[in-house]
Amino acid sequence: MESLNHTLFLWLNAPERPSALALMLATFFAEQLIWAVPLLIGIGWLRGSEGIRKAMLIATASGLLGLLINQAIGLAWTHPRPFMIGLGHTLIPHIADSSFPSDHLTLWWTVAFSLLLQQQHRSTGIGLALLGVPIAWGRIYLGVHFPFDMLGAISVALLSAWLTLRGAHWYLGPGYRLATAIHHRLFGKLIALGWVRE
Question: What range(s) does the Phosphatidic acid phosphatase type 2/haloperoxidase domain occupy (predicted)?
Answer without folding.
Answer: 54-165
